[in-house]
């Protein structure tokens, strides 16, 4: 029998890459989708044809229990979240409910469906659980690079909600003996990245300027530094974590950090453009509290999981710019009609 995986957040960037990876590994893949007319569902149905969809919402405990009962998964990947950091200041309560309490609801669905109680710990052949934790939890970093032992100091309601989900996952592992792990993933990008995140905003901006569809690109803080990797590499790490002999948390990143300014230089350079002629700094795009510097130490993942990133920062930026040039030149809609989807 094929192993079964249930993915929340199947309509997002990581959900698509993880589904493809697990299908290639021979899994039966189920994806949780929300809403009665979610505009992203037709895209998933069209492009990930072998994925089975089940309705549910991270805000609705009963729907998650039903989804677990229906999919009968061996593995659950909780990728669903409100994931755009600025939105977490605008809708802090909703972010807490979806990104934080949503983790509790998924863990409870697994616990209830598995008949686990304080007296009856997790059985053999238990459902394995992956939580999408984030380097945003490190926030105002206490040390660089950041490891699995670096303390958290989140700087956004999103980071705080992720820290709650992270500790709760650890707690369910310790309280009930569940195979529940968190991947502390640093920023990972791709041509499928949402247009609101800075890498995609820049690659789309460059493509529009190159094709004469725009003349300027407005950005916020150019000095922030991130450890940017390729999403296709990072989903392999999620699967490796759930395939390991012991449930443990891992930092996943490239170990190299670049500023937004360097990202901009590389992206405009990839299209043969001079960024200083087009980029406008807009202080309204600055955040109430910024995460200035993120840089991973992925040694544990390398030595224990054998995980390595394969795409460099420079190749990632070039890949995204080229994909957006093709997309816009073909007259396609970046949100609805992205040919970089499978
Ligand atoms: P994404 O593209 O923003 O996808 C988020 C997903 O969450 C979407 O499928 C969305 O579904 C779903 N979702 C939102 N609200 C929901 C709800 N109430 N119930 C069920 N699903 C809901 O994010 P991503 O980049 O793929 O990231 C995947 C996960 O990794 C997220 O948890 C994110 O916080 C975390 N993470 C990402 C990175 C990164 O750099 N990408 C780094 C560290 C951690 P709809 O289509 O219905 O809105
Ligand atoms: N989005 C955006 N838009 N960011 C900008 C802009 C802009 O116009 N100008 C500068 N930036 C800076 C932000 O201030 C931030 O320092 C950096 O670019 C990266 O912003 P995002 O791409 O929005 O990502 P993020 O680091 O806030 O969060 C992403 O990575 C986290 C992991 O560290 C998201 O994917 C989170 O969900 C994820 O957990």
UniProtKB/TrEMBL annotation:
EC number: 4.2.1.47
Ranges of residues in domain NAD(P)-binding: 6-320
Biological process annotations from GO: 'de novo' GDP-L-fucose biosynthetic process
Translocase as UniProt keyword: no
GO molecular function, one term: GDP-mannose 4,6-dehydratase activity
Enzyme class: lyase
A Pfam family recorded for this sequence: GDP_Man_Dehyd
InterPro entries, per database record: GDP_Man_deHydtase, NAD(P)-bd_dom, NAD(P)-bd_dom_sf
Record key words, sorted: Lyase, NADP
Cofactor: NADP(+)
Catalytic activity field: GDP-alpha-D-mannose = GDP-4-dehydro-alpha-D-rhamnose + H2O
HAMAP family hit by this protein: GDP_Man_dehydratase
Annotated family: Belongs to the NAD(P)-dependent epimerase/dehydratase family. GDP-mannose 4,6-dehydratase subfamily.
Role, per record: Catalyzes the conversion of GDP-D-mannose to GDP-4-dehydro-6-deoxy-D-mannose.
Protein name: GDP-mannose 4,6-dehydratase
């Amino acid at each position: 029998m094929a192993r079964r995986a249930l993915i929340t957040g199947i309509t997002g960037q990581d959900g698509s890459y993880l589904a493809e990876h697990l299908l290639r590994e021979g899994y039966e893949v189920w994806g949780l989708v929300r809403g009665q007319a979610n505009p992203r569902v037709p895209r998933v149905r069209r492009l990930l044809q072998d994925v089975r969809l089940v309705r549910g919402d991270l805000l609705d405990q009963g729907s998650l229990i039903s989804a677990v009962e229906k999919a009968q998964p061996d593995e659950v990947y909780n990728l669903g979240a409100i994931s755009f950091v600025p939105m977490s200041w605008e809708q802090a309560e909703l972010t807490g409910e979806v990104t934080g309490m949503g983790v509790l609801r998924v863990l409870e669905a697994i616990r209830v469906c598995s008949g686990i109680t304080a007296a009856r710990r997790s059985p053999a052949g238990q459902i394995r659980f992956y939580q999408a934790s984030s380097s945003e939890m490190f926030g105002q970093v206490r040390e660089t690079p950041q490891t699995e032992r670096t303390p958290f100091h989140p700087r956004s309601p999103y980071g705080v909600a992720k820290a709650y989900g992270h500790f709760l996952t650890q707690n369910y592992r310790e309280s009930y003996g569940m195979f529940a792990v968190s991947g502390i993933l640093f920023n990972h990008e791709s041509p499928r990245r949402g247009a609101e995140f800075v890498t995609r905003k820049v690659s789309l901006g460059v493509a529009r300027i190159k094709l004469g569809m725009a003349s300027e690109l407005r950005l916020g803080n150019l000095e922030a530094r991130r450890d940017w990797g390729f999403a296709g590499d990072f989903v392999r790490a999620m699967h490796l974590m759930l395939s390991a002999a012991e449930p443990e948390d891992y930092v996943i990143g490239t170990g190299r950090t670049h500023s937004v300014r360097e990202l901009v230089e590389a992206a405009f350079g990839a299209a043969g453009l001079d960024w200083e002629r087009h980029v406008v700094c807009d202080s309204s795009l600055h955040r109430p509290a910024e995460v200035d510097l993120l840089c991973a130490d992925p040694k544990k993942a390398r030595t224990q999981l054998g995980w390595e990133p394969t795409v460099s920062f420079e190749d990632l930026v070039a890949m995204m710019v080229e994909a957006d040039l093709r997309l816009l030149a073909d007259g396609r809609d970046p949100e609805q009609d992205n040919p970089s989807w499978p």
